[in-house]
Amino acid sequence: MSTTSPVAEPHVPKTHRYPQDPAPETPRPENWPAEIRVSGNRLVDGAGREVWLQGLAIPGLEIRPEGHGCVLSTRVGIEDWNANVIRLAVKDEYWYGHGKPGGESAGQSDGGAAYRATVDAAVNVAANRGAYLVIDNHRFRAVREEQLQFWKDVAEMYKNHPAVLFDVINEPHDISWEVWRNGGEVVERTAKVDESAFLSDAEKQKNQCFQSPGMQRLVDVIRATGARNVIIAGGLDWAYDLEGVVDGFALDDPQGNGIMYSTHIYPWKTDWQSKVLRAAALYPLFVGEVGADIKKMSFLPLDRQEDPYTWGPDMLGFIQKYRLNWSGWSFHTWATPVMLEDWDYTPTPFWGVPAREALAGKPFELRRMR
To answer: What is the CATH classification number for the domain harbouring 304?
Structure first.
C-alpha cells in the first residue's frame, strides 16, 4: 500500500455522535492498487501474483443517507487496522435520492448527489492507499428489476476502476437456485426461523411476491457497460450456502475479470465443508460478513449461539488455512456483531481484538470445524 497520506486528523472523541467525515481527497491514481481478476480459485493481479483481500465491512450508508462516518472509518480501517479491502454497504434507493426524513435522517433533496459523493470519497480514500473497496448493495432475498438500472449506473461510474469490486446483492435467501441464477417468481416466505427480524414489516413485504430477473442477467447488464470489475455474488441461506454454485448454477462471465462468490458466516451457520469449502476448491470466495457477538440473537435457541471468544479465533483460523478473502462485520458500534466499542475505534475484546490481530498478520489455528 501507499506510504503517502494526508495529515491524520485526531480520532473522534467518545460520544454518541457518529464520526465526522474528512474533506474529500483528490484521486491519486499513481497509488491505486493493481487491477485484479479471477484465476482458478484465487484473485491475481496483472502479473499473476495472488491478491488476498482481508479487511472490514462498514455499515451506515444503507441505514440513512447521511451515513455513519464511513469515509473516516474507511481511512482508519486501512491506516490503523491494516485492512486492504473495505466492504461498503449502500442502498440503491439512496443512490437516486429517494431517502425520506425520519428518525435521525434529514432525508434527501438533491437527487442523491451528496450520497454518491460520499461513496466516491470512500472509494478515493481506499484507492489512494492502495486498498480495494467493495460496493455492497445491501438488499435481501433476490435481485429486483430496478436493481439492474442501479448496477448499470454504478458500473458506468466505476468502469474498470482497479480498486472497485461490485457486490451485487447482500444476502439472497428463501429462493431456489434456479430463481437465484435465471430469475423467476419470488413467493411468500415459509421459513420457520426469521433471520430478517431486523427488517421492518414493509421491507419484509416488499421482499416477496415479485418477479426476479436473476443473477445472470444482472451480471450481463454490468458487462454490457464495458465494466470488467470483479463481481461478487452471494449464495443462498442469507449468502451462506454455495452448494448450488458447484452443482450447476455457477454464473457465466466471458467478458469480465470473473466472479467471486460470497459467503456470510456467523456462529449458527454449520457444515462449512459442504456449504463453503466445496466452492472454495473451485472459485475465489469472499467471506463478506463474518463475526460473533456477546449479544445473543433473538431468533435462535441459546444452544446454537457459541461463545465468541472461542468461535472468533477458530473462524479466523479457518479463513487463514484456506486463504479466504474476508471482511469482518461490522466496523461499527451497534450493527451486531460489533468490532468497535466506541467511535475512538476501540476494538471489542470478543471480536474486534482478534480480527485486528489477524489483519496485522497474527496466525490463528483452526481447532474445530463446524
So the answer is: 3.20.20.80
The answer to whether residue 191 scores a pLDDT higher than 90 is no
Instruction: Please report the pLDDT score of residue 7 as a whole number.
Output: 28
Across the chain, which distance is largest between two alpha carbons, in Å?
A: 53
Q: How far is CA 144 from its chain centroid?
A: 18
In a domain, 31, yes or no: no
| pTM of the predicted protein model | 0.90
Smallest CA-to-CA distance from 286 within 159, 118, 89, 134 is with 134
H helix intervals, the chain: 70-79, 92-95, 113-127, 145-157, 177-182, 201-206, 215-224, 236-239, 243-244, 272, 278-280, 308-321, 352-359
The set of residues, in sequence order, having a beta carbon less than 8 Å from that of 177 and lying 6+ positions away, is: 236, 244, 247, 248, 249
- The predicted-structure confidence for 68-104, as pLDDT tens digits, reads as follows 999 999 999 999 999 999 999 999 999 999 999 988 8
Q: Range of 63's domain? A: 45-359
- 143 close to 215: Cβ distance less than 8 angstroms: yes
Residue 19 lies in a domain: no
Q: Do strands 210-212 and 231-234 pair parallel, antiparallel, or not at all (unpaired)?
A: unpaired
User: Into how many domains does the chain fold?
Assistant: 1
Is the CB of residue 248 less than 8 Å from the CB of residue 194? no
List the grid coordinates of 370. 463446524
Asked if residue 86 is part of any domain, the answer here is yes
Amino acid at 98: H
Give the pLDDT confidence of 213-227 residue by residue, as tens digits: 999 999 999 999 999
- For residue 28, being part of any structural domain is answered with no
User: 116-136, pLDDT tens digit by residue?
Assistant: 999 999 999 999 999 999 999
Helix (H) or strand (E) holding 264: strand 259-265
